[in-house]
Design brief:
Number of domains: 2
CATH superfamily of the largest domain: Nucleoside Triphosphate Pyrophosphohydrolase
Distance between the termini: 13 Å
Strand order of the largest sheet: 4-1-6-5-8
Radius of gyration: 19 Å
Shape: elongated
Number of helices: 6
Number of strands: 8
Strand content: 25-35%
Largest sheet: 5 strands, mixed
Helix content: 25-40%
CATH class of the largest domain: Alpha Beta
């Protein structure tokens, strides 16, 4: 699991953010800001990061602190192969297409858009296959924020392979030919394996946790 110091720092940051969202007392606001600074210093001390940059990242967050939502599309073609893309932001490693969920779009709409933007293919959502907590799934490296990941099973509807600013290559892979150089912060090997299981057994209930 994640180190205790990261869990504690994340919790302090969330408490500070939520406190600043609701307090009407100037003195309390100063205390919450001090807690936010403390969380940034804890993270910087353990990660080697810049405390000022980390605190600036925290300061961008406002309102009640909730997990961020990441969507991933497991798109299958008629031959039962899964769609993967190379992410330019992660040393060209492979992942299921996806990204952060956007405001004013449903999660399913978001994943269809992400698939189109990153791969050039049109997809149709068939099923919500998994709702996984990023930390519980042990993605690396650990994230500063709490993240929930939604994995959607999708059917190929059309389009053609096309890279983007975020991707350098698009490919289809069988279950026995998944690349070893996966972007582990985005997609883990056992998650891809699980998507193949859901594709073969669509009646399975949604995975969670």
């Amino acid at each position: 699991m994640e180190p205790d110091w990261l869990v504690w720092a994340r919790r302090i940051q969330a408490l500070a953010q939520t406190g600043m969202a609701f307090t009407r007392d100037g003195y309390d606001r100063e205390r919450y800001e001090a807690l936010r600074t403390l969380a940034a210093e804890m993270l910087a001390a353990r990660s080697g990061g810049d405390p000022a940059r980390i605190e600036a990242l925290f300061a961008e967050q406002s309102g009640y602190a909730t997990p961020k939502v990441d969507v991933r599309g497991a798109v299958f073609d008629r031959d039962g192969r899964i769609l993967l893309v190379r992410e330019t932001a992660d040393a060209g490693r492979w992942t299921l297409p996806g990204g952060w969920a956007d405001v004013n779009q449903t999660p399913a709409q978001c994943v269809v858009r992400e698939v189109a933007e990153e791969s050039g293919y049109a997809a149709r959502v068939v099923k919500l296959a998994a709702v996984w907590d990023r930390a519980t799934q042990r993605h690396t490296p650990p994230s500063v924020f709490s993240i929930v990941k939604l994995f959607f099973l999708c059917r190929l509807e059309g389009g053609a392979a096309r890279t983007s600013l975020e991707t350098s290559e698009v490919g289809w892979f069988g279950e026995d030919s998944i690349p070893s150089d996966l972007s582990l912060g985005r997609t883990l090997p056992h998650q891809i394996t699980r998507m193949f299981v859901h594709w073969r057994q669509p009646e399975l209930a949604t995975d969670f946790e």
